[in-house]
Amino acid sequence: MFKFQKEVAHIFQRVGSRIAVSPDLSVLLHLALLELAMLPQDVRSHKTARVSEPFCETEGSQVPARRQKNRDFPAIARRRRSGSAPERRVNCVLVGDGAVGKSSLIVSYTTNGYPSEYVPTAFDNFTVVVVVDGKPVRLQLCDTAGQKWGLLDGSVNDELELLRPLCYRNADVFLLCYSVVRPCSFTNLTDKWLPEILQHCPGAPLVLVGTQLDLREDVQVLIQLAQKQQRPVSTEEGQRLAQELGAAAFAECSALTQKNLKDTFDSAILASFQQAESVTVQQQRMTLLRKTPDKIKNLSETWWRKIGCLVGEQSCQTK
């Protein structure tokens, strides 16, 4: 920009020297335009650099760039810039009792909205693209059924109970959800959900999540719990259970107010990263242990040959 201003100043100095010859203002303007046209292309086309927008943001979208709903995999989310690093994939599965707010967490996180009514979930998948340390991460959220659907004859439909473990197969991390205003959902974590996860996907990291945090201070909810001689699940109880389960993280959040919502899913992503890194380190260590005997054997043979050569040279010199 300084170079451009300097060139323009020189132009007006040269044009000003011609005022005595041609005092007509229009002639002076024409001369100035001709001088500007003769400037180098890089000076005339100088523009201020702009930071490009995130590639996951669609035109006209009202969703912030930090999270973008991508349920149908739009084409813009599948674009790859030449030379860009491949995105990592994290498969996050939400488990817990029905009506604890698992679907609301996903909807609020991906769309900044909140469902107006409760609709029982069979199975549903959402995909969002987030940026972690400047690199794209495709976060797949699997919403599982937490309830048994009763049939007209009063029997219990166990099909969902049989199908739900299929979502566990490729899980990288689990969000173990309970409602802070439903103590029974907190108890079912150890009675039902944890044994099911350990049976089908042992070793996967867990993030303990207390949902519906906005209802913990709600007067009507407190009255209803008091009538049942119950009380909300405290933060200390959740932290204690997370420590007993060996969970990677513990969080309490609200889908309605979005308090701690982003931190909850960030904890899930980081837990999956730490698990993957620990597995990689363990594999490298096992590979090193397998190769170590061969390396020692090769080094031993090499050193014995060198020692033999030295002994042979000394014996020859003695003779």
From TrEMBL:
- Asked whether the keyword Electron transport is assigned, the reply is no
**What are the record keywords, sorted?**
GTP-binding, Nucleotide-binding
The alphabetized list of GO BP terms reads: small GTPase-mediated signal transduction
Q: Which CDD domains match?
A: Wrch_1
Entry annotated with the keyword Cell membrane: no
| Stored Pfam families | Ras
**Which residue stretches, if any, does this entry annotate as coiled coil?**
none
A molecular function GO annotation: GTP binding
Q: Name the InterPro entries for this protein.
A: P-loop_NTPase, Small_GTP-bd, Small_GTPase, Small_GTPase_Rho
Record's protein name: Si:ch211-133l11.10
